[in-house]
Write a structure and sequence with these properties.
6-stranded mixed beta barrel, Cathepsin D, subunit A, domain 1, alpha+beta, about 525 residues, 4-stranded antiparallel sheet
Length: about 525
């Protein structure tokens, strides 16, 4: 299903997602141009058609890198993905830019003497890597079934990495390759704009937990009807490797500001990067204590991420606080990305839930696909801004909405985090709490009432019974004694001393007890009458 907007040069695409464990690849220093902090498995991908005749491949949409790369025939050690490797021998239009002609947009890591082909490569700290030669052919983005008209209308000759070797996580990922969308000369959106295929150098990503919608060009009119709030624009800088970097000003948890040691710590050297290619988000590790404190105030033990605690039970989800990222807007004002629990919680194999915002950076951070979900993110690099708004991102509904046949009122059901929790983990979260070791609300109420009754009974007993004089059977210790606890009991101003040295031979209490006894005697005489 493709959506073409008549009279407007723009294209809407359906996004897909493979549900896989969150795995992250951190870039190592190498000969190729640096890309962002992480790339993810299980992220959102779309289809591309390459060559003549067109061959299909799948690409992860990644705003944190600038390379389109995927396996080609002869790729060594490449895994099984959604589609076969691109067979260059079957395309009549493929070309290989050479190092000597300087017609490649890439910085070559190596040029072989025998063919002068431009080779590029990327390595990652956990061991993953790929190597490729630069190729050029007709490329278009589309749906699972080729649309020849769209392949021509929105296609362009484009250079990409024709991968010849993969290792590590690239072998096991579902999608064939990656579609780099950072603000760089190798970005296909900019190439489409320069070729007058689209009217604006703009694209938008609207993720759901299962897929979503990608738009090339200015946001289509139908997108406004899918928005569930006001569109906000954060100022971005793309001067560092084309990354879309926002300036964070504050973080609120449960509506209250947390203490941040410095803005330099929060934003780091490159600010906070919006990276759709990573499954989780990141903040500095120095914020751990503040997150723990804020979550304790909300009524849960502490802030728990995967591997840091055993997670939260379903009955605890209703107490989880909303997190807010306060960022710099276009005119100096604040804009706020609201993150309900349904966005930052993920269910683990043990049936419990952990937060996906990892606190392990030295400085700066990443807004990943987890926090982008159920929002329309509009990337407008020429205006140095990224817009975001809560939205209905379902592609099929978007298609129906454009055709005027949608009748579902999604605003009322999606504006609160409770509805989002239901959508993510089931309605039983808010209706029937589980019995587990962490939460026994009925037991707690009964126990509280029982303790209150005991306390009241003890108080009444103490008031109506005249105490007998007793003699203390503990000996006073010298204040020089080494037992600090005992010394504390002998200090007149110590609260514990006041409790432990209660004097039962007190004239005030004796008078009160005598008056109470007199009232009880008068009451008995009246009853006898």
């Amino acid at each position: 299903m493709l959506s073409v907007l008549h009279g407007v040069s723009a294209l809407e695409l359906q996004l897909h997602r493979h549900q896989a464990p969150a795995t992250h690849r951190r870039l190592a220093n190498g000969s190729f141009e640096a890309v962002p902090l992480t790339l993810g498995i299980g992220t959102h991908y779309t289809w591309a058609y390459v060559g003549n005749p067109p061959q299909r491949t799948s690409l992860i949409v990644d705003t944190g890198s600038n390379v389109m790369a995927f396996p080609c025939t002869g790729c060594q050690g490449c895994g099984n993905h959604t589609d076969n490797p691109f067979d260059t021998s079957l395309s009549s239009t493929v070309e290989y830019p050479t190092c000597s002609t300087s017609k490649t947009a890439f910085r070559c890591s190596m040029c072989l003497k025998e063919d002068d082909l431009c080779q590029i490569s990327q390595m990652y700290t956990e061991g993953s890597s790929w190597k490729a030669v630069v190729a050029e052919d007709q490329v278009s983005l589309g749906e699972s079934v080729l649309n020849n008209e769209l392949h021509t209308s929105f296609g362009t000759r484009f250079q990409f990495g024709c991968q010849k070797q993969e290792t590590g996580l690239f072998i096991t990922q579902t999608a064939n390759g990656i579609l780099g969308l950072s603000n760089h000369g190798t970005n296909i959106v900019r190439k489409l704009y320069n070729g007058k295929k689209i009217d604006d150098n703009i694209f938008s990503l609207c993720f759901t937990k299962n897929g979503g919608t990608m738009a090339l060009g200015a946001p289509p009119p139908s997108s406004e009807r899918r928005r569930l709030g006001a569109l906000q624009f954060a100022r971005v800088s793309t001067e560092h490797n084309g990354w879309y970097a926002v300036t964070m000003r504050e973080i609120r948890i449960g509506g209250k500001l947390i203490d941040i040691p410095s803005m330099r710590l929060l934003n780091g050297a490159n600010n906070v990067i919006i990276d759709s290619g990573t499954t989780t988000s990141y903040l500095p590790k120095a914020l751990r204590d503040e997150f723990d404190r804020a979550f304790k105030v909300a009524g849960v033990k502490k802030y728990m991420t995967e591997g840091n605690g055993n997670g939260y039970s379903k009955s605890q989800l209703t107490r989880m606080p909303t997190i807010e990222y306060v960022m710099e807007g276009m005119d100096g004002e604040d804009v706020v990305l609201t993150i309900p629990p349904a966005l930052y919680l993920k269910k683990g194999d043990n049936g419990r839930y952990s937060a996906t915002i990892a606190l392990d950076e030295q400085a700066g951070g990443v807004i990943g696909a987890d926090l982008m979900t159920n929002h329309d993110f509009i990337f407008d690099p020429d205006m140095n801004r990224v817009g975001f708004v809560l939205a209905n991102c379902n592609y099929k509904l978007a298609k129906q909405d454009e055709e005027g046949i949608i009748s579902v009122d999604v605003e009322d059901t999606s504006s609160s985090w409770e509805a989002a929790v239901i959508a993510e983990v089931g309605a039983e979260v808010l209706t029937k709490p589980e019995n587990d070791d962490d939460d026994y609300p009925i037991v707690n109420i009964v126990a509280g009432v029982f303790i209150a009754v005991l306390f009241l009974g003890a108080f009444v007993y103490a008031v109506v019974r005249k105490p007998t004089k007793t003699k203390s059977d503990w000996a006073q210790l010298s204040v020089e004694d080494d037992d600090d606890e005992a010394n504390e009991l002998m200090v007149p101003n110590s609260p514990r001393a006041k409790i432990e040295t209660y004097d039962t031979d007190d004239a005030f209490f004796d008078t009160q007890l005598d008056e109470a006894a007199g009232l009880e005697h008068e009451k008995t005489e009246l009853e006898q009458l």
